[in-house]
Each structure stands twice: as C-alpha cells, then as structure tokens.
UniProtKB/TrEMBL annotation, chain A:
This is TldD protein. GO terms for molecular function: metallopeptidase activity. Keywords: Hydrolase, Metalloprotease, Protease. GO terms for cellular component: cytosol. InterPro entries: Metalloprtase-TldD/E_C, Metalloprtase-TldD/E_N, Peptidase_U62_metallo, TldD/PmbA_N, TldD/PmbA_sf. Residues 233-448 form the Metalloprotease TldD/E C-terminal domain. Pfam families: PmbA_TldD_1st (PF01523), PmbA_TldD_3rd (PF19289). Belongs to the peptidase U62 family. Residues 21-85 form the Metalloprotease TldD/E N-terminal domain. GO terms for biological process: proteolysis.
TrEMBL record, chain B:
It holds the Pfam family PmbA_TldD_3rd. InterPro entries: Metalloprtase-TldD/E_C, TldD/PmbA_N, TldD/PmbA_sf. It comes from the Bacteria. The keyword Hydrolase applies. This is Predicted Zn-dependent protease or its inactivated homolog. Residues 220-465 form the Metalloprotease TldD/E C-terminal domain. Residues 315-324 have a biased composition (Gly residues). One of its GO terms (biological process) is proteolysis.
Length: 477, 469
C-alpha cells in the first residue's frame, strides 16, 4: 500500500508538469513514558501515517502532505505539490539540478535485538519508577526518568525509479536528579539529560543500567548546591564525551550543513562561517581532529540505509587531520555547490519536507584515555553532561554550561565545581585540542531542531573525552 | 472537513471509549484539523514551498484509577478503534494515578474571533505574491524568510458531557535583508493575511540591514539597552516557559512569587489567547481566557492545567497542552502591555514599517532611543538558553542588528554580542526606563503561539562576550 500511494503521487506530479518528483509514505508509532518522584507521570502513544510528495517544476520546488493513502488522495497530493512548485516560480531562483544517484530498489532495517514496543509497559514503568524512587531516597528534590521509542516504516518512490522501504527502530532513555537550594537549582543526569538514544532495540536502555546510577546522581545534585562556583578565567578544559558530542553537534555538525553554507537557512537556523572556496584547505582544528559523516554506524542514532531522497548511506570525511574536507549535502544543494554527493537529507515524518540534516557526525578515537588526560593536566577544569547550549547563527561563538565540573590540579581530579560554563570561537577552540581519548561512545541527540515549519532530527555523535588549552570558563550573569 | 466533522469524530471516540472501557471510564478527546502552508525564501528566491493537511485525534483516558494518553492521525473507523484499544491497554498497565484531576465539567466556551477565510485557505500564489513584494522592496539586497498561513478547526468532547468547538486562522511573515554580512529583520503576525504587507516589511528589513553595515566591536560589559519587539519577545517566551509555568512553580523551580513586586511597575503581562484568532479552549476543554501574570510590577499568577492547578489547590487557567504533564502548562500568548494602555491595539504591517529611517525603524523606538545618553539598540536575540532556571539566568546572542546609541542617536553599527543575564532581574524594580506605545505581534515557531510587545528601554544588560569571543 505504501509503494502504491507513493507511486500514484509521483505520477500525478509528473502529469501536472513536474520534471522530477518523489514521495514518501511513512508510518510511525511513538511511545514515551516519564516518571517523577517514584510515580509514572505520563504515558503517551501516538500513531501517524501519511504521504508527502515533492515536485520540481522548472527551478521551483513544491511539497504537499496528506494523511490519506487512497489512490485519489495520493494523486491529489501530487497535483498540489506541482501547483505549489509552479507558484514558486513567482520568485524564481537559478536552475536546479540533482546530482546523480543510482535508482535503488531495496529494503533496509535497523538492527534490533529486543523490540522496544514489545517490552511490557509494566517492565518499562517499573524501571523508571524504581530509579526515580531511588533518587528521591538519596536526596533529590525532583527525580525524573524518561524513555522514548520511535518505530518508523517508510516507503520511498522517485520518478527516477527508486523504490525503497525501510524499517527503523529507535529508542533510549535516562534519569535526572534536581536539588533545589536558596535561589538556585542543581541537576545531575545519567547518562545525559533526557537520555541516551540509538537506532537500536531496548537492549540499549537495558545496557544503561539506570537503576545503578540513580543514587549517585541524586547525591551529586545535592552536593552541587554547596560546591564552590567554577572559577572564572582561562584554563585548560577537559570535556567528558557527552559534552563533547554536543560540542561537535553545534560547532561542527551544523556548520558543515551545505544548505546553511549556501544561505538557505539564513533567516532562521542561520548560515555558516565556512566558505566553500576553502573546502579542502581550511584548518578547522588540530591534527587530532578527524570528524566523519557516517550513517552506517550500527546502532548510532543517525544511521539509516538510505536517506529521504534515495541516496545510500555512505561514510565520508568531514575533517581529516584538522583540515575541512566534507559537508552534509542533499542532491540539489550538492549540485549548486559543484559537489558530487548528497546522502544527508531527511524529513521529520511524512508531513515535512526532506532537508539537509546531520547523520552521525563524530570524532574518530584519539590515542589517550581520560585518566591519561587528567594525569597530564597541571591546572584545569573537567566538565561533563550538558546543561545549556548557545551558539551564534554562523556557528562560531558558543557558550556551553555543564551540570558538573571538577578541579584538576597536578594531574588529579579534585573538588566538585558548580555552574561550570565555557565559551569560545569554534575553530580557535578546535585548534586547541591537544589530547583526545579513545573511549568513544556514539551519543544520540533526539531533539535537533531545524527548518520552517519546524522539524526535529535524530542525530548521532561519536565522541570521547578531550582536552582543550586556554579556554575561557566561568562566565556568569 | 468542517467543524461539524471534527465534533462528530470527537463524539464518536467518546462513545467508543464507553463501549470498550465501560461507562465509568473518563475520556477526553480533542480532534484538530489543520491546513498549514509556508513559503520560504532565501538568496531572494523561493526555495522551499510546503503545505500539509491533516487531522489528529488526541485521547486521554482514566479508567480504574489509571491514566494513559494517545494520539493518531488515522480517523477511519479502524484507526479510531485502534487508538481507543491501544490507550485502554496502556491505561490497564499504567500505575495508579491518585492525582487525576477529573474532567472539565460542562461549561460555555467563548466564541473566539471570526476566522478570515481568505487567510485560512490562502493559495500558494498569494503567499508567493507577498514574498515577491518583500524581495522587490529590499532593492538589490539578499532577502530570506517566510510567509506562513494556517488554519485549525477543533472539537473537544469528554465523557462528562462537555464539548466545545472552534476555528482559528493566522498569517505570519518573517524576513531579513542582507547587506554585506549585515542583516536587518522585520517580523509580524496577524489574523488576516491581508494585514501583512510584504513590501513594507521588506523595506524595513532593508533599511535596518543597510544601517547595520560596517560594524565596530565594542568591549563586553553592562550597557543600557533599547530592545525592539523581536528581542522583547524572547524575554516573554522565557519568562513564560520557566517562570509562569504552574508545574515549575509547584516544583519550586520558578522565580515567580505571586503577590510580590518582582518587576518594575511599568511591567504588566497578560497571557491573552483571545486577543488573536485561536481555538477558544485547551486540550482539556477548559475555556481559554486572559490571565494577568504581572500587574504593575507585581506577580499575580502562573498558568495551570487541571493537574497542576489541582496540585496547588487552584483551578485550571485554560493552559492544558500536549506534553503538559512533562513540560508543564505554559502561557503561549503573552502580551507586554504598552505605555499608553488607551492605545492598546497592536500595530498593523503598515505601522511596523512606518517612520523607516535606518537603525531606528519606527517612531516608538525613536522616542525611547532619544533618551539614551550611551547605550545599545538591539533588534533581536538568538539561541537563548537557560543557565539557571530558578533565577532565569539566560545566555544568548544579539542578531539582526545592534547599534551604539550616543546622546539619543544611533551612531555606529556594532558587532553581535553574547550576553548572560537574569531576565526577571533585568525587568526588575527600577530597571525599566521606558516602554513604547505600539506593540507588535511576533510570530512564534508554530502557529497559535505568539508574543506581543512594544519596544522597551532597560537600564542595564550584561553583555559577557563580543563577536571575537
């Protein structure tokens, strides 16, 4: 049924004058449960199915989405997409080409040992209730737990002959403890705020062993209330892997999105400090910096078989030995830029236009361990687990806050520090990275916002602890 | 589909629940049909142009002391039956919910504003025409932004016999002009597409972009500021999310203290959904109404849904929303009332662009800037994130234009700053030096959510970093 509706929509768009069209039927089931202070707070299950069709008329795109899969509804959507594309010609742009891609006829499914929707709700509820109750017993004023599950099947058809179906299962979860003092709150989370996620089954959540970490983070959140403030000044900064994953996401992943570089996101998400004329030559970071775009990593949250315009998942370099060499691209943006590859276009559901999105953008492992990095640091601060993130519209000037910091003195981890923040300029920061751990985790970010209308993307970020020299820390109001 | 169709669907789901879960089951159902369209432009051409039609059914079920919620885009009989079965099964397995606040009792619902049909079902050509006008008005600069129209028709029903219906339409336009790396912005939402003038907005954005070229870098520090409505909207959104949120208040994570003079006497904030076209009821069927949050500087109330209201012994204020159990009830239509309450009407697109002179885009801002001996005029804030929710300490950046003001006159464009500031403190007693008279309604990222504010002059804003770090 999915292929039939998508095929009808594509044909109707072609009949209405499109020179290219593609359509995605998506069926998504979503389940989430949150718990607070030992009770389940919310259990929600949603099901959504529909079709989105994209038509190219002349140099104008049009997109229309409907929640019905009947032949008539699909054809009507195709015609409407073509009509919208025609209206785009009132404010036309340059001619649009699409970089070539083989017209795949294929099926793909993500690895999944334990179907997360098949795990009894009572078991999942017991996990969150138990962990949040433990956090309360260990001093948290507010103990929260959450899991989320997405089960998506999609059928893709293009006027070039693509016919691809994919079944992608994603899930994850986490716990957070908040302690409330006079005029401030302190939070500790495990493994990160709102959790760790992957394109995998419930085995990911099981492996996190949330219950085993509940008491520790509750106690740490309370300890933070009386911990000394992170000092202000310039120092050596050691970032834990979870925080480094977000640093990659914000200051590398978004910066290498080709639609931003081309100005297509100028009014909202912003542009990029990167200039295509320097692709292949620009020094992005130190020689330890090797960043890949790799949607083939098993279990990582940004993995798939094919992107949402039918390009197969292929691993590419984004930064090699500190030099910028690759971008996240789609077929049309790549053609505009004179590049030969797309492969990074995805849509948040059937009702949204596919656009350039991160897949798995992460650092290759380095030669060190976290213990070695700490041992090699005379005077610095170790920060971990993100609490706040902010970066400018060119992806240069950032400021991050973490949940927790520790003094590092004479090669040893010392006192806990509260309200740790750091700030900098992307390439200056990345050029200062002089130690990188091999202890890589493919962190998942399930809440990447982009696009108008808004879309939520799921991205993966392999990352390990690393050290940066001479970073400004301790910014406060 | 008509309003009646949504009403029939909602009633059908309530009846299905009765059959599947028995007469004691408590169910509330919201059916929303939406027609959303957005024409997006960049590099002065339309590059993304989308429309979607859809209907969603949201069901919350409380049975045998347990609660579950579900939703679906499938409105055929099989889809509705599956939704009810799935939610019933989930409720059976859910733990007891002793804090269940019960259903909204039958009560009249306000009619809401009339829907402008021309906006509700505007064609892609009509949106493209406004984009064309915006692009033409920037006269050779690069233009980027969007023109959006939306329509929603909703019906609520619950098993206590309460029902409500409503319709809403909204139009919004948000664009920048780009001049050699400097951007200027113009942004406006209205009940009628006809009230959005692409040419006026484009001219304003272009004038500000031209005035923002060749910026200097100033040292970080505290500056007096004049914040234009787009920047003020960011303050209001964060105050709403983190402060006037009944769940966060109950958790002691909010700064809000009702009855305490926490703000400057010039500050009066009202969450006022019926000030614009809107569905006149919330997810729980409670009638939406104006909620005074701050009156002349004194905090008066926070927003509640039925659950958070029950927790603190108050009733719902009509702020039930999807995800509210997790994120809390959040005011989504906050107005900062202007200096001259008698002129309490938001300005139209023409007034948004009136008095275009460059950095100072309107007479309202000009009057406030004129009083500044040395300070900054700020158009917009970007990527603001909370460092400390209790004190609402926020970091973020300026965007779309900053100017040094000396002796009442913008003298130089300034490069963007990073700031780290407590929003309630910045608006605290003695800190508000002036309010404009002409509020502008600013669109949010999704339809139905907006802020309305005039330009504001504040005594101090903490800029903690310059463009170079």
């Amino acid at each position: 049924m999915g292929f039939d509706a998508a095929t009808a929509a594509v044909q109707a768009a072609l009949d209405a004058g499109a020179r290219y069209a593609d359509a995605r039927v998506m069926h998504r089931r979503y389940e989430s449960m949150s718990a607070r202070n030992g009770d389940v707070e919310e259990l929600a299950q949603h099901e959504s199915i529909g079709l989105g069709v994209r038509a190219l008329v002349g140099s104008g795109w049009g997109f229309h989405a409907v929640p019905e899969l009947s032949d008539a509804a699909a054809r009507d959507a195709g015609r409407r997409a073509a009509a919208i594309a025609t209206a785009s010609a009132r404010v036309p742009g340059p001619p649009i080409d699409l970089v070539p891609v083989d017209a795949a006829v294929a099926s793909w499914a993500s690895d999944c040992a334990v179907d997360p929707l098949g795990v009894p709700l009572s078991d999942k509820g017991d996990l969150l209730v138990g962990a949040t109750a433990t956090m309360r017993e260990h001093g948290a004023d507010l103990a929260e737990g959450l899991y989320q599950i997405w089960d998506t099947t999609k059928w893709f058809v293009s006027s070039e002959g693509h016919r691809i179906d994919q079944h992608i299962r994603e899930c994850g979860g986490g716990i957070s403890a908040t302690s409330i003092g006079d005029g401030e709150t302190q939070r500790r989370s495990y493994p990160s705020y709102r959790g760790q996620y992957g394109t995998t089954g419930w085995e990911l959540v099981t492996s996190l062993d949330l219950a085993a970490h509940a008491a520790r983070i509750a106690e740490e959140s309370r300890e933070l209330l009386t911990a000394p403030e992170c000092p202000a000044g310039e120092t050596d900064l050691i970032l834990g892997g979870e925080q480094l994953a977000l640093q990659i996401h914000e200051s590398v992943g978004h910066a290498i999105e080709l639609d931003r570089i081309l100005g297509w996101e100028a009014a909202f998400a912003g542009t990029s400090w990167l200039d295509l004329a320097r692709l292949g030559s620009l020094r992005y970071g130190s020689e330890l910096m090797n960043v890949t775009i790799d949607p083939t990593i098993p279990g990582a949250l940004g993995s798939f078989g094919f992107d949402d315009e039918g390009s197969p998942a292929v691993a590419r370099d984004a930064v090699r030995e500190g030099r910028w060499v690759g971008v996240l691209a789609g077929r049309d943006s790549a053609a505009v830029a004179g590049l030969g590859y797309g492969g990074s276009v995805r849509a948040d559901g059937w009702a949204r236009l596919p656009m350039v999105r991160m897949t798995n953008v992460g650092l290759e492992p380095g030669p060190h361990t976290l213990d070695e990095i700490i041992a090699a640091t005379d005077d610095g601060v170790l920060m971990d687990v993100n609490r706040s993130w902010s970066i400018d519209d060119k992806r240069l000037n950032f400021q991050f806050g973490c949940e927790v910091g520790w003094e590092v003195r004479n090669g040893r981890r010392g006192r806990m520090l509260r309200n740790p923040t750091y700030t900098g300029i992307g390439p200056v920061f990345w050029r200062s990275m002089d130690m990188l751990s091999s202890e890589t985790v493919a962190w998942g970010t399930p809440n990447c916002g982009k696009g108008q209308p808004g879309q939520i993307g799921h991205t993966g970020h392999p990352a390990a602890p690393a050290r940066f020299r001479g970073v400004r820390v301790g910014v406060r109001a | 589909m008509s309003e009646g169709t949504e009403r029939d669907l909602a009633a059908r789901v309530v009846e299905l629940v009765r059959r599947v879960a028995g007469p004691a089951a408590q169910a509330e159902v919201l059916v929303t049909r939406s027609d959303l369209a957005l024409t997006r432009f960049a590099n002065s051409f339309i590059h993304q142009n989308v429309a979607e039609t859809g209907t969603t059914v949201q069901l919350r079920l409380h049975v045998d002391g347990r609660t579950a919620a579900g939703g679906s885009s499938r409105v055929d009989p099989d889809g509705l039956a599956a939704l009810v079965e799935r939610t019933r099964a989930a409720a059976r397995l859910a733990p007891p919910d002793p804090a269940w606040p019960g259903l909204t009792a039958p009560a009249p619902t306000p009619a809401g504003r009339p829907v402008d049909e021309a906006t509700a079902f505007a064609s892609p050509d009509e949106r493209a025409a406004r984009v064309r006008a915006f692009v033409d008005a920037v006269e050779g600069l690069e233009a980027a932004g969007y023109c959006r129209t939306s329509y929603r028709s909703g019906a609520f029903a619950n098993s206590a016999g309460h029902s409500a219906v409503g319709r809403a339409a909204e139009a919004a336009m948000d664009g920048i002009a780009r001049a050699g790396g400097a951007d200027g912005v113009a942004r406006h939402s209205a009940d009628r597409l006809a009230d959005l003038e692409g040419a006026v907005l484009g001219a304003r954005a272009a004038a500000k972009a031209r005035a923002a070229t060749d910026p200097i870098e100033l040292p970080p520090g505290r500056y007096e500021v004049v914040l234009e409505p787009a920047a003020v909207a960011d303050l209001l959104q964060n105050l709403a999310w983190y402060g006037f949120n009944g769940k966060r208040y109950a958790e002691r994570q909010s700064f809000a203290e009702p009855g305490v003079a926490q703000f400057d006497p010039a500050v009066t904030l009202v969450d006022d959904p019926l000030h614009a076209s809107t569905l006149p009821f919330d997810l729980e069927g409670t009638a939406r109404r104006a909620l005074p949050l701050v009156e002349a500087g004194t905090t008066r109330a926070v927003a509640h849904d039925r659950r958070s209201g029950a927790e603190v012994g108050a009733g719902s204020t009509g702020h039930g929303m999807a995800g509210g159990s997790t994120f809390g009830p959040i005011p989504r239509n906050v107005r900062l009332l202007p200096a001259d309450r008698a002129a309490d009407v938001s300005v139209g697109a023409a007034a948004v662009g009136a008095g275009v002179t460059g950095a100072v885009g309107d007479p309202d801002t000009a009057a406030l800037v004129a009083g500044v001996r040395r300070g900054l005029l700020v158009s917009d804030f970007w990527y603001t994130r909370v460092l400390d929710p209790k004190q609402l300490v926020v970091t973020g950046l300026t965007r779309n234009g900053v100017w040094l003001v000396e002796d009442g006159v913008p003298t130089r464009a300034v490069r963007d700053f990073r700031f780290t500031e407590s929003y309630p403190r910045a608006l605290g007693p003695g800190r508000v030096l002036g309010l404009g008279r002409s509020p502008v309604r600013q669109p949010d990222r999704s339809d139905g959510s907006w802020c309305e504010a005039p330009t504001v002059r504040l005594s101090s804003w903490n800029f903690t970093g310059g463009a170079s770090g």
